[in-house]
Design brief:
- The protein is an alpha/beta fold and about 230 residues long.
- The chain has helices spanning about 20-35, 135-140, 160-170, 185-190, 200-215, and strands at about 10, 40-45, 50-55, 60-65, 70, 100-110, 110-120, 125, 150, 155-160, 175-180.
- Strands 1-4-3-2-11-6-7-8-10 form a nine-stranded mixed beta sheet, with helices on both faces.
- A hairpin with a 5-residue loop joins strand 3 and strand 4 (about 60-65).
- The longest helix has 18 residues, at about 200-215.
């Protein structure tokens, strides 16, 4: 997907020289054609390209932006990682897990309210964290290449503007996140996935919008109270 094809009404923070991958286009087509998002807005996280793309419930692209992700390569979360303090998570366990997740807002340590992508493993999407200047997260997010975007403990960081104007608005009532794998196959990460014909996907959009409205399922809610050790990583 070229910069021109993204649309003038889409918030686009991705460098024009960084095209959206064909894998992302295929996954988006599959989600829309199959109704896998169940009438909910959805996002696709491309870890290799360090990009996040946000879609409305109708499948229309709302925005795309560079993202910071877990510093370790891998698609699974270590047992118990969601209940550890950040300083106690070794480098090898700082992964952003791959797969399909029902995301919802919920409480976190310190009275925060965050959009949990996977509450069990304490992975959320949130505005860029700048408390540790040595990590140079702002500089990493600003570079046009994805090579230096692996720096977090597993959470997904985006710019404050993108979070406020796209993520927060689109996922106010929750949604579905598809995190593309580093090492798994797409079929392993998304059971039931079959690469669709893009033309077939477009032909089914009208039917899917009607179908989604009929079978829309509310996202799972995060627990009412987060344990003291539960902190967004």
């Amino acid at each position: 997907m070229s910069a021109k094809a993204r649309g003038a009404d889409v918030r686009d923070e991705v460098d024009p020289g960084q095209p959206v991958s064909e894998t992302v286009v295929d996954i988006a087509g599959w989600v829309i054609a199959s109704g896998d998002n169940r009438g909910l807005p959805f996002a696709i996280i491309d870890k290799e390209a360090a990009q996040v793309l946000v879609f409305g419930a109708d499948g229309k692209l709302k925005g795309l932006a560079p993202a910071l992700i877990g510093s370790a390569v891998g698609d699974d979360s270590a047992p118990g990682v969601g209940d550890r303090e950040l300083k106690d998570i070794p480098m090898k366990d700082r992964t952003t897990p791959a797969g399909r997740f029902l995301a919802a807002y919920g409480p976190a340590t310190g009275g925060q309210r965050v959009l949990w992508v996977d509450y069990a493993t304490a992975v959320s999407i949130h505005p860029l964290a700048t408390s540790n200047r040595a990590e140079k997260r702002e500089e990493r997010l600003a570079t046009p290449k994805p090579d230096d975007n692996r720096i977090t403990h597993g959470c997904i960081n985006v710019s404050a503007d993108f979070y406020e104007e796209v993520v927060k608005v689109t996922f106010a009532k929750g949604g579905v996140f598809y995190v593309l794998p580093d090492e798994m196959t797409l079929a392993e990460a998304f059971p039931g996935y079959a690469t669709p014909s893009l033309l077939a996907s477009l032909a089914q959009v009208a039917k899917i919008v009607t179908y989604n409205a009929a079978v829309a399922t509310p996202p799972a809610k995060a627990p009412a109270k987060a344990p003291a050790s539960k902190i967004s990583r």
